Amino acid sequence: MLQELLLSHFRSHRRTALAFDGRPVAIFGPNGAGKTNILEAISLMSPGRGLRRAAAEELSRRPERLGWKVAATVDGHEIETIAERGSARSVIIDGKAATQVALGRIARILWLTPAMDRLWIEGAEGRRRFLDRMVLSFVPAHAEATLAYEKAMRERNRLLKDEVRDPAWYGALEAQMAEAGAEIDTNRRMVLVRLAEAQSAAETAFPAADLTLLDGEDGGAPGSADALAELLAAHRPRDMAAGRTLAGPHRADLSALYAAKGTPAAQCSTGEQKALLISLILANARALAADIGQPPLLLLDEVAAHLDQDRRAALYDEITALGVQAFMTGTGAELFDVLGDRAEWLEVSEGEDQSHANFRSAP
Questions:
Q1: Which regions in the chain score pLDDT beneath 50?
Q2: Does residue 267 sit in the same domain as residue 334?
């Protein structure tokens, strides 16, 4: 549970301090007021670049650009993430310097943003990120495997571009990639099984999605480290011609089928695609609650878009029934009116070149 949050010189917030009681939070206000900035700050309590994938310098409040700080209390842990002017982001947990990877062991965070509404019809990279964010909520060590794989792949790609032909150099890097890549693939497939189980056991107003992990056009990750190492070795000539690694888990893709209709997600309506995404997020929350006794934090930006009144009400009912602390944004309080006292109400406004956030009574 997120108990306290402080934003200092972060985006449009000069200083915003908030305390939460564990209920869902309905965040409302006009476009540009700074609602999504609050969600982005929370997303930085997990590994990675947050829900907008912004560089550290982009997060600093203008025009000062003095750097920024986000501090939070999550399940009793004091977390700070800071970027001083011109420096990279740093993390402090309970008073000690820590890595971003360590955040994944404390805060399990998932999000949906309007940009993700096109997830099923755009490139595979976004779908891999979506899947890996879910995997990270179940397996915090997935971040370490991903970093190890990407580091070894960058070094291998450098050899390929330089047309280095020494097999010993490749062998060492490919062994690292194979070990980490097999772990990544195993984690992903395990989570797909857990999501399928959670969907099949749920009574929900949202459609189930049948998910399949695809190898991708140029090969994904064979099931074992040995198989992946053999694949990488066999592909060296082709990879050298391309100047990059063309096979491995970084080429995998996620396919979704609207189960009840047997229709690929890419061919569904915009509303159906949104409903499938919400269904997967809720399934993730159910499965995680069953596995570790606690659902993840959910960040749902403009979640009411493409949902009719009945679907919105169903979503809020499921969130409160699961005991999920969900942070939801919308332009008007009326989008959340059926929540009533089941939620905290946070109004965000803009004034004097900064954002203001104030709790209100339920309408």
A1: none
A2: no
